[in-house]
Amino acid sequence: MQSIKKKAPGIALCAAVAAVATVLCGVKLGSFSLEIVGAPVFSILLGMIITLCVPTLAGSDKAAAGVKFTSKKILQWAVIILGFSLNMSTIAKVGAKSLPVIVCTISTSLIVAYLMMKALKLDSKVACLIGVGSSICGGSAIAATAPVIDASDEQVAQSISVIFLFNVLAALIFPYIGHAIGFGSGGFAVFAGTAVNDTSSVTAAASTAESIYGVDGILSSAVTVKLTRTLAIIPITLVIALWRTAKAKKAGGNAENAFSFKKAFPLFILWFVLAALVTTGVGLLPESGFVSFYNGSFVPAMKWLAKFFIAMAMAAIGLNTNIVNLVKNGGKPILLGFCCWLSISAVSILVQLATQLFYISV
């Protein structure tokens, strides 16, 4: 009880920031919706602004414990809850044809991130987060990877900021580029699902494309491809965890650095898989009142809660981040993010040409 009381003020502060960020996402400026920015980005920006104006707030005796708890534990809970939005059987049926594009774009981004890290002498954790965020699913992938590599709040904030920049650019320009170069509606859905980082930006790009193409179905197809891509969180985070454990063991060789199942296989990722398996199992059941409730009410509620928890965690990270230092050190991470974004976009188009998905309609 004492622990809950100690953490409550900081958790409440992060929840309040996340609530404001969620409301901001519903604002429309003419035909432009702020939903394209996303609640996590608004949360992290608001958190950094609050800390800039009231520098002692996040680190105060009342707020510190709750803010730290939110940036670590609630972030992991968000990833677990996200699993309920993944029906693996549906993804297997609809997303299978996009698998070659997904594998190639993910591999390209990770390779580019590693090479650029070496060339720019960039912090390895920042490079890892930007590479994973660019290749898989933006903020959700960063949220899943950060605890595995013990990334600091400032490193997470920097990575999220870079991903956000190219998310917005992609959502604004990709629908027009895709139509101009001759994508079919199905080809654009695969392009959006593999070359745009965050789900909110994929949704924005695909919705705009439906208006440009004058057809329905691009949005649902793009989101399915994106969800298929999200599954890559599982093997990549586990591989990173295994690699870090092996590296620590080799460096130390003592009992403290010995192999640990918990370190190598982060438990929150296993719970994420279990949540996805539950949803997959329900999807195989015959239609009933329970199945209708699960798919029609429970899953949407879990999606909303996962997004809100991620927004809370990003608020906590923003509250622990010095925005001045972030701007000063932002040049190299932005260049890395640009190279990942450009290479993913190019590879997505090239693989589609090679697999003849380019002109397919949904």
Protein model, in words:
It is a single chain. The protein is mainly alpha-helical and 362 residues long. 78% of the residues lie in helices and 1% in strands. It contains 17 helices and two strands. It has helices at 2-25, 39-53, 64-82, 88-95, 99-120, 124-135, 139-149, 153-180, 185-195, 199-213, 218-230, 233-252, 261-264, 267-283, 289-319, 323-328, 331-355, and strands spanning 28-29, 32-33. Helix 3 (64-82) runs antiparallel to helix 15 (289-319). The protein starts with a helix and ends in a 7-residue tail after the last helix. The relative contact order is 0.19. The model is unreliable at 254-259 (pLDDT under 50).
Keywords:
single chain; 362 residues; mainly alpha; two-stranded antiparallel sheet; 2 strands
Topology record:
Layout: H1 2-25, E1 28-29, E2 32-33, H2 39-53, H3 64-82, H4 88-95, H5 99-120, H6 124-135, H7 139-149, H8 153-180, H9 185-195, H10 199-213, H11 218-230, H12 233-252, H13 261-264, H14 267-283, H15 289-319, H16 323-328, H17 331-355
Antiparallel strand pairs: 1-2
Helix pairs in contact: 1-2, 1-3, 1-15, 2-15, 3-7, 3-14, 3-15, 4-11, 5-6, 5-17, 6-7, 6-8, 6-17, 7-8, 7-12, 8-9, 8-10, 8-15, 8-17, 9-10, 9-11, 9-17, 10-11, 12-14
- Helix fraction by DSSP (H/I, runs of at least 4): over 70%
Mean pLDDT: 82
**Segments where pLDDT lies below 50 for 5+ residues?**
254-259
Helix-strand makeup class:
mainly alpha
The proportion of residues in beta strands is under 5%
Number of DSSP-assigned strands: 2
Distance between the termini: 54 Å
What series of H and E elements makes up the topology? HEEHHHHHHHHHHHHHHHH
For the biggest sheet, the summary is: 2 strands, antiparallel
Please tell me how large the radius of gyration is.
20 Å
Strand order of the largest sheet: 1-2
Q: Helix segment count?
A: 17
